[in-house]
Write a structure and sequence with these properties.
By secondary structure, the chain is of the alpha+beta class. It is built from 26 helices and 16 strands. Strand 11 (about 505-510) and strand 12 form a beta hairpin. The longest helix is centred in the first third of the chain and has 36 residues, at about 1-35.
Length: about 750
């Protein structure tokens, strides 16, 4: 029985082997037939290089060329022996670590790319191409991304390996690879990035050069992804160490070396920061190869007339600020809130200014916004039912529930912020609190509005960098998160557009070389409501209220344009003196500006005076532009009379409904004062924070912030009423000082 089973098994094995062999021959024959049908270029044409069709980037008119991607293409061919061995080793390590062993292809890598392509994947991410294949692709093949091209690539790579030595193939690769923009080959890249020949490149510099060709635009040292470039450079060094191309000592020295990149000297470019912003989008969408050869016409949203004015203004005022305030750099972004179109983008005072690392686009950098984020917190509060007339107490307050109410510090987990002038104003309306940028009412507003709800509103408006609310806590409203100038200007455009967000646009259309439209934005603008219209109008009404902001800015500040022009504006500064912001808008243009130092060095002064003159100079120009209509903001609806007094009392702090019952039928001064004293409370005494227009809370003390807020209010009212009863002499001037702030007892809060 066992013999029969064994014989049967052998018979099946033989049959299986025969079938497999036959199928293999059939498959191989089919593959040969398929290959014979392919139009494979003659390898004799290898030395003929493809004529590049130049991709051009235009302003919104489609007439002004901002940048020709292939204008003045820079390629210098140098002998193999003049290329640093570090460059050769670094390139092989990261691009094709078996280069000197294979025959031109890596079959398993090709199979992975083939399968991925069949599944709809992106073969660019598969790592299937050897250095030999990349040389073939650059020299002979079209830029189509398909398995057919990969097969052609593989066949020609095998042939090329028979014609040329490995050193010759690597020489072609190093002299022809793109390194971003008009830079081709390691010699031009070495001179462009390090101002030296490829023969003099250090190991660390070679690692950077090897890192770039995978995505030249994204990894450009002149772009905004230096951190990503640094990570990839380190990966190159790791590979070189792993392959024993370098010693541990060389590795450590290269990791520790600080490499200086020279400024991009390309002068054939207008609006360079914006162009690089566009270029990176195009490279991600179409790939570096398509941009180099396809000859696209890219019409952007940029208004070059405004851009030119903005660049001059930013440069002039930044140079002045450097002398006066130690603020060496500035940036400005303008957006049409109705369409989301970026009209201007100035990322520094000078793109080619090496002194300040000018090619870094500070408009895309994440920085703390200071008080400029406050309008979005108030907008959320207004959505919940609070109003511009809602009364809050601007008094010394400890907000940490783990700290004593009379501990007015922000140390050891406590949080008790100050106002910009270290003064406190007692009861104020939300209108005055926002217009004058008072910090204590702003923190209270964030608590009332809700941390998670406020961050959601801000993110929906465009502040995508605000993520985990636990990271910021109540410091968010004073600028505890990080944002970009572009995203903040986008968010303010939602306020300008009455709460509706038009998606930010930078490209209007893309055409092929014969004028066929490849991409085009819809004529009908799609908007999404992200802030309640009434809340947005209330914020704009406050930010354009010159009377309300006068105590902070003065009656004739840079923010005031007279009665004929409706301009809302908000400044923001950081406590560490690193950032000064301003955002201002009309219904038809939003302008954001920033001043500071790229390296985060502190300025020697901090206030809106640093950046507001620059912003005002550009706003004056923009408001004279015939393409920007002059409109006023619609008035918000009147505040209802039938809501709680604390929500509509404009800074009056006593709930009259409670006061009347305490006065009796024949009140005198004493019981009037006693009634006033008894009914003076923080807003948490009168509202459930999540339902302010609902019933009065049955147990206000159940709110975790109640006693903290009440402590400050009690200290304030003790001082106020003591002064009244002592003919204007405050407790600080009297012998009886038991009612000073420091003398308030916790028990007093329970009365």
């Amino acid at each position: 029985m066992k013999r029969k089973s064994s014989a049967k098994w052998k018979e099946w094995a033989v049959d299986g082997l025969i079938i497999t062999t036959v199928l293999g021959f059939i498959g191989a024959g089919a593959l040969l037939v398929f290959i014979s049908t392919l139009n494979i270029p003659d390898l004799s044409a290898f030395e003929q290089r493809r004529v590049l069709q130049s991709t051009k980037i235009y302003d919104r008119t489609g007439e002004i060329v901002l940048y020709d991607l292939n204008q003045d293409v820079r390629r210098t061919v140098i002998p193999y022996d003049e290329i640093s061995h570090h460059i050769k080793n670094a390139t092989v390590a990261i691009e094709d670590d078996t280069f000197f062993e294979h025959w031109g292809v890596r079959p398993l890598a090709i199979v992975r790319a083939f399968v991925s392509n069949l599944q709809g994947g992106d073969i660019r991410g598969q790592g299937g191409s050897t250095i030999t294949q990349q040389v073939i692709k650059n020299a002979l093949l079209s830029r189509e991304k398909s398995y057919i091209r990969k097969i052609k690539e593989a066949i020609l790579a095998l042939r090329l390996e028979q014609l040329l030595t490995k050193e010759e193939i690597l020489w072609h690769y190093l002299n022809e690879s793109p390194y971003g923009g008009t830079i081709y080959g390691v010699e031009e890249a070495s001179r462009a990035f390090f101002a030296k020949s490829a023969s003099d490149i250090t190991l660390a510099e070679a690692a950077y050069l090897a890192a770039i060709p995978q995505a030249p635009t994204y990894f450009s040292p002149h772009g905004n992804n230096r951190d990503a470039l640094e990570v990839r450079k380190n990966r190159v060094l790791d590979q070189m160490l792993k392959l024993e191309f370098i010693s541990q000592e060389e590795y450590d020295a290269a990791k520790a070396e600080t490499v200086e990149f020279v400024a991009d000297a390309n002068t054939g470019i207008k609006a360079p920061h914006f162009v690089m912003y566009i270029w990176e989008q195009l490279a991600e969408r179409y790939g570096e190869e398509e941009l180099a050869t396809r000859g696209l016409k890219v019409v952007t949203t940029l208004d070059y007339e405004l851009q030119a004015e903005a660049e001059k203004i930013v440069n002039d005022y930044a140079l002045t600020n450097e002398t006066k305030y130690n603020a060496s750099n500035a940036a400005l972004v303008a957006i049409d809130p109705n369409t989301g179109d970026i009209l201007t983008m100035v990322g520094s005072r000078g793109y080619f200014d090496e002194e300040i690392d000018g090619n870094y686009n500070i408009a895309l950098a994440e920085r703390q916004p200071g008080s400029s984020i406050k309008p979005f917190i108030y907008a959320k509060a207004f959505e919940k039912g609070y109003t511009p007339a809602t009364t809050l107490f601007d008094v010394r307050t400890q907000f940490s529930t783990t700290c004593s109410p009379n501990n007015f510090t922000s140390e050891d987990g406590c949080y008790s912020p100050q106002n910009y002038d270290n003064a406190f104003r007692g009861p104020v309306s939300m209108r005055n609190a926002l217009a004058q940028s008072l910090n204590i009412p702003a923190v209270k507003t964030l608590y009332l509005a809700g941390m998670q709800d406020s961050i959601k509103l801000a993110r929906d408006a465009g502040l995508s960098t605000l993520t985990d609310w636990r990271r910021y806590g109540l410091t968010l409203v004073l600028g505890g998160g990080e944002v970009t100038l572009l995203n903040m200007t986008t968010a303010y455009s939602v306020l300008a557009n009455e709460g509706e967000k038009a998606q930010t646009r930078s490209i209007l259309r893309i055409e092929d070389p014969v004028g066929n439209i490849i991409e085009e934005v819809d004529e009908e603008i799609v908007v999404e409501r992200v802030i309640d219209r009434e809340a947005a109008l209330q914020v704009s009404n406050i930010l354009s209220d010159n009377v309300a902001r006068t105590p902070l800015y003065g009656a004739n500040s840079q923010l005031y344009f007279g009665n004929d022009v409706d301009v809302a504006a908000k400044t923001g500064t950081t406590n560490d003196k690193r950032d000064a912001w301003i955002f201002g808008y009309t219904p038809n243009i939003v302008v954001g500006a920033w001043a500071g130092n790229n390296n985060n060095e502190s300025m020697n002064e901090i206030s809106g005076l640093i950046i507001s003159p620059l912003w005002r100079a550009f706003m004056d120009v923009a408001l004279e532009n015939e393409n920007i209509a002059k409109e006023s903001f619609p008035d918000p609806a009147a505040i209802p009379d039938d809501i709680k007094p604390v929500l509509r009392s404009n800074g009056y702090f006593v709930d009259a409904s409670s006061l009347v019952g305490d006065l009796g039928s024949n009140p005198d001064t004493a019981n009037i004062l006693e009634a006033l004293y008894s009914n003076t409370h923080s807003i948490l005494h009168f509202v459930n924070k999540d339902d302010p227009r609902g019933p009065y809370p049955s147990n206000p003390a159940s709110d975790g912030q109640y006693y903290l807020w009440e402590y400050g209010v009690t200290a304030w009212k003790n001082n106020q009423f003591f002064t009244i009863l002592n003919d204007g002499v405050g407790p600080e001037n009297s012998e009886d000082n038991q009612n000073q702030e420091e003398g308030v007892e916790i028990g007093d809060l329970q009365n």
